[in-house]
Design goal:
75% helix; flat; mainly alpha
């Protein structure tokens, strides 16, 4: 029991560190945009990633579990940002690979959200195993 409480406390401290780091990074990004007097789509996507990480931390803090859809949405946003940041001299096949990765992660998100649907007829007792 003591070991479980210690591990739980370490997890909570790590979550607080992630939250504080994300908030600092968010404000540093805002400061950089203000100083540059320029806001790009890549900047906005990065800020959206920060917001999603904060939402993930909030969700974890409330439920003590990570909902898998949060990291998937963060991954999609990060991959989209990566595409935007590529320069014109980049290998075009990389664009195809990253686009396929976005498609795979998006399909995984749909499947995960759809798994509890009555249309799939998944046994509710086994739904927690997915």
């Amino acid at each position: 029991m003591l070991m479980n409480n210690s591990i739980r406390n370490i997890q909570l401290v790590a979550v607080v560190v992630v939250l504080i780091s994300t908030i600092i990074a968010f404000f540093l990004e805002m400061k950089e945009m203000y100083e540059n007097k320029d806001i790009t789509l890549a900047d906005l996507l990065l800020m959206f990633i920060y917001i999603e990480v904060i939402g993930l931390v909030r969700s974890y803090w409330e439920t003590r579990a990570v909902r898998i859809t949060y990291p998937l949405v963060i991954a999609i946003t990060a991959l989209a940002r990566f595409i935007i940041l590529q320069d014109k001299e980049s290998d075009p096949t990389n664009l195809i690979y990253i686009s396929l990765a976005i498609l795979i992660v998006a399909l995984a998100t749909v499947i995960i959200r759809f798994r509890n649907s009555k249309f799939l007829k998944i046994d509710k007792t086994k739904a927690g195993e997915l």
